[in-house]
Amino acid sequence: MRIGILGTGAMATTLGGAWVRAGHEVLVGGRDPGAAARAAAAAGAARSGTLADAAEFGEAVLVAVPAGAASRVVGALAAELTGRTVLDCTVPMAPGPDGPVVTTSGGPDSVAARLAAAAPGARVAKVFGICHESIWTLDRPAFDGAPLAVPFCTDDPAAAALVTELVSSMGCTPLPCGGLARAGLLESAAVLAIGIWWSGGEARHAFPAPALAPGAVDDEQL
């Protein structure tokens, strides 16, 4: 798969590196040619270029810029992104009195929905935003004996198929979570988990499967 990356930060380099290891062709694009070249080298990608180069290069295009700038960046590239699958890994977050808070307005509003409005010809998927960038440095990440599950939201069947193929190629399990109207739930979940980690807690310990409880009964049987 050909994947363009918009951005030169940690998510760009770690996800780019994971995709290179999985056998995909990656081009990292940025406003600063030097930063783009350094990020491409860190990811092991063979190519770097401008943001427009990255948008035109990939059948999939990762948005790995700050959440507050994402819709502006994508809107400026709307023509180049037409017909492509846009992968939104951003987390709209700001400090709050009790920990990090979501900066979107809630409900169906999300960065992913804003990207879809900014580039109406693109196929947008919310994906790869739950895990810290360090997880993507692992080869075929697995925990407690199970491959990492990667949740995603999209309204587009072609985008869902591409995300499923891409996630599977990384040795992970695709986890469809509904359409873009639910993308805000993934963004909120990421912010909640980040707050727990920052406080010294472990988010995964808060979500045991109900089936693990002795004598558990499936909700559908109640």
Structure description:
- This protein has 222 residues and is an alpha/beta fold.
- The chain is 36% helix and 20% strand.
- The protein contains eight helices and twelve strands.
- Helix 1 packs across helix 2 and helix 4 runs parallel beside helix 6.
- The relative contact order is 0.13.
- The mean pLDDT is 94.
- Put simply, the count of helices is 8
Q: Alpha-carbon distance between the termini?
A: 45 Å
**Helicity range of the residues?**
25-40%
Mean pLDDT: 94
Strand order of the largest sheet: 3-2-1-4-5-8-11-12
Rg from C-alpha positions?
17 Å
Cα shape? globular
Largest sheet: 8 strands, mixed
Q: What is the H/E string?
A: EHEHEHEHHEEEHEEEEHEH
Low-confidence stretches: none
Total beta-strand segments:
12
Share in β-strands = 15-25%
Which structural class is indicated by helix and strand composition?
alpha/beta
How would you summarize this macromolecular structure in one to three sentences?
36% of the residues lie in helices and 20% in strands. With 222 residues, the chain is of the alpha/beta class.
